[in-house]
Amino acid sequence: MDLKKILVTSVVAASGLFLSACATGPDAPESSFSYQCGQLNVTATNVGNGDQLAVDYQGQRLLLNQEVSASGARYVAPDDDETYFWSKGERALFSVKGQMYPECLQAGALEMPFEATGNEPFWHVSVAHQVLVLNRPSDTGEPEEVALETTVANQHGREFRGELDGQELTLKVARQLCEDNMSGAQFPAQVRLELNGEVFQGCGGDPQRLFRGAEWVVEDLAGAGIIDSSRMTVEFLDDNRLAGRASCNRYGGQYELTAEGVSFDNLFATRMACAPALMNQENRFLELMAKVKRAAIGRNGQLILTTSAGEEITAFQSTENKSRP
Known about the structure:
Layout: E1 4-6, E2 32-37, E3 40-47, E4 52-57, E5 60-67, E6 73-77, E7 80-88, E8 91-96, E9 99-100, E10 104-105, E11 114-118, E12 123-128, E13 131-135, E14 144-147, E15 149-154, E16 157-164, E17 167-174, E18 178-180, E19 186-187, E20 189-195, E21 198-204, E22 216-221, E23 233-236, E24 241-245, E25 250-258, E26 261-269, H1 276-289, E27 292-297, E28 303-307, E29 312-317
Antiparallel strand pairs: 1-18, 2-3, 2-10, 3-4, 4-5, 5-6, 6-7, 7-8, 8-9, 8-10, 11-12, 11-21, 12-13, 13-14, 15-16, 16-17, 17-20, 18-19, 20-21, 22-23, 22-29, 23-24, 24-25, 25-26, 27-28, 28-29
C-alpha cells in the first residue's frame, strides 16, 4: 500500500535506478561539477592550474583561491574568508559573505545523516557513514544498526543493501517530492524500505531543502493578484531567518518549520513611505505572513503559503540575477 503521495508526474521510481559510479567533487581531475544547494543551482569549475575555482550561481561568478585544508578542497574569496566553497566528494559547503546555503549536493547524492520515516506502521531510518540505524516497523524496541553497501549511485538517487538478523534489507531513495499522508509535511525524497520481503513506503531528506536557496517572488496575494510592477519576495535563510521585500519596505523575521507546518515570527520592516496603494498591499502581505501555518511546493514548482484561514500567498522562484547583500 502506498502511504505517501508523490507530487510530481515525471518521476523515476526507486526500483528503476541504474548502477553507476559515484560522482566526485571539483578536487578531482574533472573540471566542472553541478550542485544543488537546496533550490540553488551551482556550477563549480577548476580554472588556471587548478588552484582557483569559478563558482557560478544566480547569473553571477565568484573566483575563489584554493587554501590548505585537512579534508576536501577549500576555495576562498580574496580578502573575504566568509565567502568560500568547500567540496568533499559529492557534497560541498557554500557561503557568500557569511550567508550559508544548504549543503550542496551533486545530482542523486544524499545529505548526511539522511533520515526517512513512514507510517502505518511507523518506521524510521537514519543513514550515515555506510551505517543504517533502524526503528523497525511496529517495533517499540531499541534501534538496530545495519552495515550498508551502496549498490546504486546515479543522478536519480541511491540504493543501499544490508543484512539484519539474517534478513535482507534494502533502502531505495529517489529524489522526488513526497508528502506525508498523515502530517501533510513535504520532503525532497521518496524512500522505499524492503525488509525480509516486506515493502514500506516513506519520505526522507531535509524539508528545508525545498524552500531554501531561492528568492520566491509573490505573484498572487490571497486571490487578489498584485499591483503591476510591485515586488514582494520571500527568502528562507540560514539560522531560521526570514527576509524579503514587502512592496515598499524590506522585512525580516524568523521561521520555524516542523512536521505540523510553518510559522513566521518576530516580523519587522523598514519604515519607508510609498504610494498609498503600495502601502496597503504591503500591510496586507505582512498581515497574511504573520498568519501563515503551512508552506508547500505546488505541482508547478510554486511556493504556496497558507494561513490558518485558508488564504494563500503564491510565489515562484525569481529568474532575475540577484546580487546578494
